[in-house]
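Here is one such tokenized protein:
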Amino acid sequence: MKRIILFVLCICLSSCSALADMEVHFLSVGNADAAMIVADGHVLLIDGGKSGSSQLIYSYLKNTLHAAHIDAVIATHPHADHIGGLPAAFNACTVERVFSSVPMDAEDSAPVCDTREFRSLVKYARKQGLDLMIPQRGERLQLDGLTVEFLSGGCTGDLSALNSSGVNNLSLIVRVSYGSVSFLFTGDAEWEGEQAALSDCGDSLRATVLKVAHHGSGTSSCTEFLQAVAPRYAVISCDENAGYGHPSGETLARLGALSIPCYRLDRCGTLICRTDGETLSFSAPLPEAYPNEAEEKPPSSAAYIGNRNSKRFHVPDCASVAAMKEKNRVGLASREEALEKGYKPCGNCHP
């Protein structure tokens, strides 16, 4: 009898020490970003879509996840399509900590990012007695079996001189892992931000699932970055009817050239990924080729387009490429190849 009791006790202890399931909910919020992560009783929120998604954020936390507390809110960068709906999370739940790529200033000074959405985020954080925390590269947050690692740090400088692309490249790049399964969140990082991550992080970028940067824009997801991440799956939060040209045909082609299956939230809706730390499943079937996509967006493995006459190279979406004669175009697989062949970067798209 004692042996039987001991055997049962060992089984119970083994079950208790095993990882519980983790879920990542990629919310369909149009040409914006919002993801909720649940594991071991913890809740993590990475971006919150536009202000128009506030009701969805509130309802999803309260009625779908039945969450009362959020361990961490991460605002990858202060653009409205990433932080507009975050105040709803503070209305729905208590929040333990808030990470941001840019700080809030003192009560009596102008905010670092002077937009309605950023001021609202600061306001609701302060209502719960919270400051925006600026993570350092390599900083980690451990929530039982869930590990959150910041692969890029925040910025404490003046943002006034930055254009939209500059703010995009301030995006926090966050790797969330659970057992042997990992997810990489990239905000709106463009190639400059990706190159910095490649230089700083190396093998740390590898992940099972990649949340594709900047809604699949052609100025993100360079081939070198995709090769370094080497994801088994990719997820794009986009709306092809929003007028921004997202996702770019070139980005889809680069993913296709590396045989990375890609979920598009504008076509599959909110996507739930479930893992026990080893296996991974999705709430939607793997996408097949979409009708006429090959005709609408001819596949190409070129990461850059060079001009044989000017010896300049460009990102595929650059206006100079559209104006370039077909006979002068040359495909370039990487920035390194372009420089080695004597091409200089375009002064407008800054490849």
